[in-house]
Design goal:
Helices cover about 40% and strands about 15% of the residues. The protein is α/β, with parallel strands linked by helices and about 375 residues long. The protein has two domains: about 230 residues, Aspartate Aminotransferase, domain 2; about 120 residues, Aspartate Aminotransferase, domain 1. The strands form four sheets. Strands 1-9-8-5-4-2-3 form a seven-stranded mixed β-sheet, sandwiched between helices. Strands 6-7 form a two-stranded antiparallel sheet. A hairpin with a 2-residue loop joins strand 10 and strand 11. The longest helix has 21 residues. Bound molecules: pyridoxal-5'-phosphate. The site of pyridoxal-5'-phosphate has 15 residues, from helix 4 and helix 5.
Length: about 375
């Protein structure tokens, strides 16, 4: 490594300040209005954002909540999933996918994932059907849509509800339709690092079902449909007005940012093709590259090497859900483990990927990877 690159600032895994630079001029005056109106919890900015995002996604109802996990929790309840019910989920995902099930006393039934995408393997899901399975949660992992034609056909054949975990994939389409709009309900996260991220926590549930929308609105706000009349046990899962305001301004720019992510992914694919890395493919519809996850048997040594070159990376996710300590006694881990899930967990490495990443930053990642494999040969 040359002297210049050692004194350069590290290449961050993600840099959110670039988005702020772009939205500052719109957000600051608007924020003033929000403070003057004291519209802190839901309120007019949240209603406007709900309408804007519903139009963007092509759905009838969008219900803004306080996080992606909250979205999945209320969607679980609205899907009628009860204590002891079983739900098919991919074994390789962020644990937020299943918190809602666990809060309700439902049991996740883990399924193997596809080698090509890391998304739920429907052939395996078919094998894991058993009495008490009520729903399936496909996760559009890393920003790549699950095969929603197959998911919906599978669910319809077996009478299952479909809750899409679209936390990583806002804006992605499957056959020209936005993901999140296929299932009974679709759930999104606006955690700051997501493709559409707030200035704090946020989430969203979408549905075309009027009754479910009403129920979801009640669940997120203390179980009330009328003020201080609590029809059911509810939650305080309201979205902050500030988050809605920021998200509204960011949503206008999301497609442009997604194009930038795709350009970065295309460049990684071209420049890393001559290395032994297994690169992500675009298999089902159009990937929005929330994460760019490569796989290699040398994952851990590559990661340390990149760190020493000032290139930050991430692991998504190193421990399959069926081996998480909190699930001991709730679920039975597959006897043999899942070969492909374990492969993603132990060999997957997320490279820097964010809208606004410069060519120079990407060159440093690419050069460091090239020099690692030369060193290793
Ligand atoms: C981020 C994420 C969630 C949870 O969202 P939070 O807003 O962090 O609660 C759920 N599922 C997946 C796949 C995620 O990436």
């Amino acid at each position: 490594m040359n002297v210049i690159s050692t004194i350069e600032r590290p290449v961050p895994f993600v840099d959110l300040s670039l988005q702020w630079d772009q939205i500052r001029g719109d957000v600051m005056p608007d924020l003033q209005g929000l403070f003057e109106a004291s519209a802190y919890c839901l309120g007019p900015w949240a209603s406007a954002f709900e309408k804007q995002v519903a139009d963007y996604l092509g759905v009838k109802h969008a219900i803004a909540v306080s996080s992606g996990s909250a979205a999945l929790h209320v969607a679980t309840i609205a899907a009628g999933i009860k204590r002891g019910d079983k739900v098919l989920v991919p074994a390789h995902t962020f644990i937020g996918t299943i918190w809602g099930l666990l809060y309700e006393g439902a049991i996740p039934v883990f399924c193997e994932v596809e080698d090509t995408t890391g998304n739920i393997d429907l052939a395996d899901a078919e094998r894991r059907l058993e009495k008490g399975v009520k729903a399936i949660i496909p996760v559009h992992l890393y920003g790549q849509p699950a095969d929603m034609t197959k998911v919906m056909a599978f669910a319809n054949r077996h009478g299952l509800a479909v809750i899409e975990d679209a936390a990583q994939a806002i804006g992605a389409c499957f056959q020209n339709k936005r993901i999140g709009s296929f299932g009974t309900m679709g759930c999104f996260s606006f955690y700051p690092g997501k493709n559409l991220g707030g200035a704090g926590e946020g989430g969203l549930v979408v549905t075309d079902d009027d009754e479910k929308a009403k129920l979801l609105r009640s669940l997120r706000e203390h179980g009330q449909t009328e003020r201080y009349v609590h029809d059911r046990i509810g939650y305080n899962y309201r979205m902050d007005g500030i988050q809605a305001l920021v998200l509204g301004h960011k949503l206008k720019r999301l497609d442009g940012w997604t194009d930038q992510r795709r350009a970065i992914a295309a460049r990684y694919r071209g420049e890393l093709a001559d290395t032994p890395l297994r690169l992500p493919d675009m298999v089902h519809g159009d990937h929005v590259y929330h994460l760019y996850v490569i796989r290699t048997e040398k994952r851990d040594s590559l990661r340390s090497f990149l760190e020493s070159c000032g290139v930050q990376t991430g692991l998504h996710y190193p421990l399959p859900l069926y081996r998480q300590p909190c699930l001991a006694g709730i679920t039975t881990p597959p006897a043999e483990g899942f070969r492909i899930t374990e492969d993603w967990a132990s060999h997957g490495l997320s490279l820097p990927m964010f809208a606004g990443m410069t060519l120079a930053q990407q060159d440093r990642v690419i050069e460091a990877i090239h020099s690692f494999f030369k060193v290793e040969k």
